[in-house]
């Protein structure tokens, strides 16, 4: 008669101090339980105990995980042990921009539904660009100094006039807010058209002509988004929005293409009177 298969057992050593609980230890414990292992959770409750553990096992970090007596390593090692990918903070990725555009698109659809009763309106497309510009500007404004340093690597105007690298995120934010509000088109249109055109030319030259491999400053300085098509998209969206607003303004006289329903009704009543 064969003996029943013994469940795998994991021993987790993690740092749990009065004022600090290792977050990777919590992640490791959760992952082990989700994989169906019995977890023996051993706390290292002082710095001295932590240092002694590291010296005893010849490791530099905690947490440390042992499965059936075999040392697996830290949290990233544990993920790889279970066939999962481990986060690489230096990896090149388009994910931040893709997520940003997805969220701003949903915001635009939601705003359109709230105002017009349906998400599928032309105004939703306009709001999508405005919201995207606003969030991109916000990310840049988190650390203007770092943004300016990255921006100077490729922007043609900033290389000639450094203050432009500091002005850019504020200009983008101003244009975005005015476009979303549908006011002062004579301010937002020139700003969006100017910074969008300069940005598009700069990105095209750096990526497609000079073949340079740079990180994009479009989502701030804390990401590893490569300078390329998505970077160009940000600038082309600003140009498209500025051109669309200009054509709409020309076609409607003084009426703004971004007038809200109550504004449009008021203008129609005024015209009828």
Provide the descriptors you would attach to this structure in a database record.
about 270 residues; alpha+beta; Glutaredoxin; 2 domains; four-stranded mixed sheet; about 10% strand; disordered N terminus; disordered C terminus
Structure description:
The chain has 273 residues and is α+β, with helices and mostly antiparallel strands. The chain has two domains: 9-81, Glutaredoxin (3-Layer(aba) Sandwich); 95-261. It contains eleven helices and four strands. Strands 2-1-3-4 form a four-stranded mixed β-sheet. Helix 4 (95-116) packs across helix 5 (122-141) and helix 9 (185-209) runs antiparallel to helix 10. The longest helix has 25 residues, at 185-209. The N and C termini lie far apart (98 Å). Residues 1-5, 253-260 and 262-273 have low confidence and may be disordered.
What order do the SSEs take from the amino end to the carboxyl end, as H and E? EHEHEEHHHHHHHHH
Query: What distance lies between the first and last C-alpha atoms, to the nearest angstrom?
Result: 98 Å
**Count of spatially separate domains:** 2
Portion of residues in beta strands equals: 5-15%
Order of strands in the sheet with most strands: 2-1-3-4
Shape: elongated
Short description:
The chain has helices spanning 23-34, 47-57, 75-81, 95-116, 122-141, 144-151, 156-160, 163-181, 185-209, 229-252, 261-272; strands at 9-15, 38-44, 64-67, 70-73.
